[in-house]
Specification:
This protein has about 500 residues and is α+β, with helices and mostly antiparallel strands. Helix content is about 45%, strand content about 15%. The strands form four sheets. Strands 13, 14, 15, 16, 17 and 18 form a six-stranded mixed β-sheet that branches. A hairpin with a 3-residue loop joins strand 8 (about 165-170) and strand 9 (about 175-180).
């Protein structure tokens, strides 16, 4: 907030006179400070109207006045007010000449005008401006809120740009908006600047300034859900009021964009409960909820995807995001060691792979999935059995398998066969896991990698990320504990089948 000299000149009760160039009346004043120091610059910050009676300049020379004016001009004060009638009957000509030479506005303050009156006038006007700004901000906040109810993201961006007289853009993963419309290049600029943030999961405000332009980015969202950046590009730094309006717009955008997220989360909870009842066989044929129909294709068929591994959280988030982008609901059941998802009967293994495509390489490596054949929706439990069987047969090179694509694995789909294999595994696998727990080894996981690689040392060691000699040592220890020869194919086959059955219990 500032007060132009011209406004002070219009205050008749002050009786101020501008003695220098009239064009300097537009100079803005931020404060009025009375001082009789010959060098007040250590206590000045720039923009002040310095008031003095010249007591320290009685008998001063032209050089003294020139040095004084130079110091004030270097401190970037806005103007000098000289009080006449006390130590000087009029403004010293030497001071006037120095002020004109440096382009410093010089005011004649008559003896009848107290410096306190000038200071009070400046401060009162600044307070009025502050109050007017607050009123304007409140009016704009109300207007932005009103348009947000009707127009959403685009309306918020447009109203903020109009109120701040800047170019404004919202840039998110799925939604972008910019105003004025001819500033679309701002969207690409915001994306480029946002890409430099250190932590995309916890974005922070970003500001870039040059003498000609300021770009400010504010993240929109909440701690666990970020939607993008709201950006303002203007010719100068943002005012305090502009920052208030920016914060208000960020809040409105967060509410606007969180509504579908929260609604989807609540809907997903309901879907999860219905899916659980479906798997438990507790939904009658004549009482299938209508919203379950969204999970099936047009013929009422569904598939079940069963996902296992240590990255179930990221897998669930990616599945939800991918389905949301496709405008589809999520039907999922989450357990400690598995994630079960209901897809449409027309979905394929390629669909499942596409839904998980955005997982990081380490996350992708940490999960394996099986997908059932199409089943009527009330047969979801039977589809889950198929999906589990397929998931149990995944390998390092085939992390997602479809049940009807399995070859030579029907024995694992047979309940009696699985029971026999589990019984056999009960005498072997716990021996390894107990040894691992007690000694901090990794014999169980090493055995599986070795068996899946069909006894090939290099490929098994590569899968585990260890040297083949380290793997040889572990397998030798496994043979000692289990009293078997893993060099025999039949032994390896029995162990692999029993291990897979054990994991699918």
């Amino acid at each position: 907030m500032t007060v132009p000299i011209s406004w002070l000149l219009r205050q008749k009760h002050l009786s101020l006179t501008l003695l220098t160039d009239p064009s300097s009346s537009t100079q803005p004043v931020t404060f009025a400070q009375a001082t009789e120091l010959t060098d007040p610059t250590p206590w000045l910050s720039g923009g002040e109207l310095v008031l003095t009676t010249g007591l320290a300049f009685v008998g001063a020379t032209a050089t003294d006045f020139a040095d004084y004016v130079d110091r004030l001009a270097s401190a970037e004060v806005s103007a000098l007010g000289f009080g006449t009638g006390l130590s000087h009957k009029e403004v010293p000509p030497e001071l006037l000449a120095a002020a004109r030479g440096r382009g410093l506005p010089l005011l004649d303050v008559p003896f009848t005008t107290p410096f306190a009156a000038v200071t009070r006038a400046v401060m009162t006007r600044l307070s009025q401006q502050e109050y007017e700004s607050v009123l304007r901000a409140a009016e704009v906040q109300t207007r932005i809120t009103r348009v947000a109810l009707r127009g959403g993201v685009s309306a918020i961006v447009r109203e903020l740009a109009t109120a701040t007289k800047t170019s404004v853009a919202f840039v998110g993963d799925r939604i972008t908006a910019v105003h004025p419309a001819n500033q679309k290049s701002l969207i690409a600029e915001v994306r480029a600047v946002a890409a430099t943030t250190r932590d995309p999961n916890a974005p922070a405000s970003i500001s870039q300034s040059t003498p000609e332009r300021t770009l400010t980015l504010s993240p929109v969202g909440v701690t666990d859900s970020w939607h993008g950046y709201l950006a303002l590009a203007g010719s100068g730094p943002l005012s305090n009021i502009d920052r208030v309006l920016l914060g208000h717009a960020v809040s409105l955008l967060t509410l606007e964009l969180e509504k579908p997220v929260r609604l989807r989360a609540e809907r997903s909870k309901l879907n999860s409960m219905a899916f659980g009842l479906l798997l438990d066989g507790r939904i009658a044929e004549d009482a299938v909820p209508s919203y379950l129909g969204e999970a099936s294709d047009t013929t009422g068929l569904v598939r079940v995807v069963h996902i296992r591994g240590s990255a179930l959280g990221p897998a669930l988030r990616e599945l939800d995001s991918a389905l949301a982008r496709a405008g589809r609901p999520l039907f999922a059941q989450v357990e400690n060691t598995a994630l079960t998802v209901l897809l449409r009967g027309t979905d394929t293994i390629d669909t499942a792979q596409a839904l998980l495509a955005q997982l990081s390489p380490s996350e992708s490596k940490a999960v394996r999935a099986g997908i059932s054949t199409p089943h009527p929706i009330l047969d979801a439990a039977r589809a889950l059995v198929q999906a589990r069987a397929a998931a149990n047969l995944t390998t390092a090179t085939a992390r997602i398998l479809e049940f009807d694509a399995l070859t030579g694995s029907t024995i694992l789909a047979s309940e009696p066969a699985r029971e026999a294999l589990v019984a056999m595994a009960a005498d072997t696998i716990p021996v390894l896991t107990e040894h691992d727990d007690k000694h901090g080894t990794a014999l169980a996981i090493s055995l599986r990698a070795y068996l899946e690689a069909n006894g090939q040392w290099e490929s098994a060691a590569s899968e585990l990320g260890i040297h083949r000699h380290t793997l040889r040592g572990r397998i030798t220890r496994v043979e000692e504990l289990l009293r078997c020869d893993l060099g025999e194919a039949r032994v390896r086959a029995e162990l692999l089948l029993s291990l897979l059955a054990w994991e699918s219990r």
